[in-house]
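Quick one, tokens below:
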């Protein structure tokens, strides 16, 4: 009883890797391995790089905007419309830079998503999932292995960013202390450069952790798609198709393995075959002083050469040693060596027509 239960449990275990069919079906549903951390980090790094490139222009626009807004401080409240118009004109260049940065971050996120899972469009993800409303399912997700991995990942990322910030600020501490002695423009320039450098260092560390998270997501994705024995066998049947289709595919494979040279078999004088599946189609010269190889095959290709020869009435002669020697040394459209040609002539002389 216990042995039967154990066997049943083994049959129900998901111990088989997903078939290409199962992977394709999961992709059609939009179920592909992706790391949200990697997408977010790439998007943030793209925004930081664009901001660092636009930092000089951004500083100039901030100074211009401040000057334009403060220039109308002596106006009366009656000219509020003119003040609003001046403020709008001053903010527009700054808004353009911010919008370009946001667009760059969006493009970076889209590229990161496509690199991870390709372009997948599935409407199944848009439908409601009522299973998520179940309290028991929610509790199971809260205390699952995935939740533990996410918590550990968050702690590692927090510790990594804190370490990067600590060492960066400690190295810049003497310059930070002298910062109030500088002018406003230089203070803004240096602090902006430090902020961008710190963001790039933290982003590089988070990017490395995000790549590890993506590798974990790929492994978890394959684990989620693991199959039982029955599922695996069912998918194999669906991929292979009907017995007639499998038989036709084997015939086509044999024809392809035999190659174009098999078309010359009906013109052969004889086919020398072996019990191991080797076959060599030969054409004797009219004076019988030389012979030429028309086709050589082994395995499915050899069987195909035999079938063509039998259908065309070409004699098929069984000789293991000669067939092995000819298939090892000869190629299609080559002349048989004299020593082996003599053996071929003696064999044909002894063999009856249609053997």
């Amino acid at each position: 009883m216990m042995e039967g239960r154990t066997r049943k449990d083994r049959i129900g275990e998901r111990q088989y890797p997903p078939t290409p069919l199962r992977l394709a079906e999961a992709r059609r549903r939009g179920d592909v391995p992706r790391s949200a951390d990697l997408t977010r980090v790439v998007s943030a790094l793209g925004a930081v790089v664009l901001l660092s490139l636009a930092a000089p222009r951004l500083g100039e626009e901030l100074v211009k905007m401040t000057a334009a807004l403060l220039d109308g401080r002596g106006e009366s409240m009656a000219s509020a419309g003119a003040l609003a118009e001046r403020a709008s004109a001053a903010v527009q260049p700054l808004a353009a830079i911010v919008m370009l940065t946001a667009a760059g971050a969006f493009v970076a996120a889209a590229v990161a998503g496509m690199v991870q899972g390709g372009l997948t469009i599935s409407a199944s993800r848009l439908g409601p999932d009522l299973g998520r409303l179940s309290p028991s399912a929610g509790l199971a997700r809260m205390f699952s292995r995935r939740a533990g991995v996410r918590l550990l990942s968050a702690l590692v990322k927090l510790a990594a960013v804190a370490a990067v910030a600590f060492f960066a600020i400690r190295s810049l501490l003497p310059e930070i202390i002298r910062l109030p002695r500088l002018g406003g423009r230089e203070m803004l320039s240096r602090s902006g450069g430090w902020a961008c450098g710190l963001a790039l260092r933290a982003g590089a560390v988070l990017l490395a952790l995000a790549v590890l998270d993506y590798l974990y997501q790929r492994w978890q994705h394959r684990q989620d798609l693991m199959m039982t024995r029955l599922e695996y066998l069912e998918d194999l049947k669906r991929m292979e198709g009907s017995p007639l289709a499998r038989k036709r595919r084997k015939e086509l494979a044999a024809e392809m393995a035999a190659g174009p040279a098999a078309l010359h078999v009906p013109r052969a004088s004889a086919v020398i075959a072996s019990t191991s599946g080797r076959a060599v189609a030969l054409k004797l010269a009219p004076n019988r002083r030389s012979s030429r190889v028309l086709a050589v095959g082994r395995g499915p290709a050899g069987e195909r050469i035999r079938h063509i020869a039998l259908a065309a009435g070409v004699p098929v002669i069984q000789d293991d040693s000669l067939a092995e020697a000819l298939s090892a040394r000869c190629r299609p459209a080559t002349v048989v060596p004299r020593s082996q040609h003599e053996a071929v002539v003696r064999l044909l002389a002894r063999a009856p027509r249609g053997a």
